[in-house]
Amino acid sequence: MVLGFLLYEAIDLVYHSGKITYNGASSVYNWYYGIDNSSLNKKITQDEETIKMLEDRIDNLESIIEKYVKDKNNIDK
Q1: Distance between CA atoms of 60 and 55, rounded to whole angstroms?
Q2: Which of 44, 26, 24 shows the shortest CA–CA distance to 35?
């Protein structure tokens, strides 16, 4: 029972020290390069808008190609 408790505490200590190290390192990195959460959220929103615009363009081009193929098939007959 004591061995289980010691193992649990050792694993807990390793986990939390690793988490503190990771969070500290990422905070220093973000501070050094001037990255903040609001700019990341803005970039994600901008990227989603760009993806939506590109999907709309693909749909438009697909409809143009389908129309062209139909017209070409009707002319050939």
Answers
A1: 9
A2: 26
